Amino acid sequence: MSEQTAGDQTVVRYEVTGGAARVILDSQHNRNAISTALVEQLHAALDRAAADDGARVVVLGHVGGTFCAGADLSEASAAGADGSSPEDQAAERTRIFLGLLRAIISHPKPVIAAVDGHVRAGGMGLLAACDLALAGPASTFALTEVRLGLAAAMISVPLAARVNSRDLARALLTGEKFDSAHARRIGLLSDAVDNLDAAVDELVDSFRPCSPQGLAENKALLAGPILAELDARGDDLAGVTARLFTTPEVAEGMTAFLERRQPSWASTAE
What we know:
The chain has a single domain (about 1-195), classed as 2-enoyl-CoA Hydratase, Chain A, domain 1. It has ten helices and eleven strands. The chain has helices spanning about 35-50, 75, 85-105, 120-130, 155-160, 165-175, 180-185, 195-205, 210-245, 250-260, and strands at about 1-5, 10-15, 20-25, 55-60, 65-70, 110-115, 120, 130-135, 140, 180, 190. The strands form two sheets. A seven-stranded mixed sheet has the order 1-2-3-4-6-8-11, with helices on both faces. The protein has a four-stranded mixed sheet with strand order 5-7-9-10. It starts with a strand and ends in a 12-residue tail after the last helix.
């Protein structure tokens, strides 16, 4: 297995086995959160997979009990070294994340998400950007932005392309956690499985008779509407995130999260 490295920190690993490029998120110290290093290395791994003749498909997996926890809130709450405003920083992080979503959606090879752990917030966007998604029994899912005072702005586009509208409304507006069986029922997953590794290998095998050109062209047909929506709304959605990051409620929500406590607005049953 080789590594994608930014500086001296390796958070994405790459190998080719069984005709698939295995791109593994390995940033366990922050639950595979979407940090600057992870985005850079994931881009590099996707580019490598696109040019790798030994890989017919890409499998996006993870190490540890979390597939992706969403944005790295410790990075998001840090002051900008260049003197930029918090709003400008948030907008730039959102644009960078948009580029990552586009890279997955527009990749010339099918991308399979292989999940056996927790998926939260922006991690749900990574999952929805993949063409296919399998999850094992340890998986749980939640769109937790609403509990931090945020909106699932950019990721709402790929999610809306996968998830039934009423089910997406409930997930977005409550932030509640659900399991892989529910994720399959609402369209977020291709399948909920008992043995993730065996199911992924079986799915990878199904691509062996397929022409690389045929895969690329058919994938482009499927990706076109999602990419068009992202391109049309990307700047506006980045603006939503940037605006919210400057509000007192987000400051309280992020502080409460980092301090592992309930935010001030959380009500309790009497």
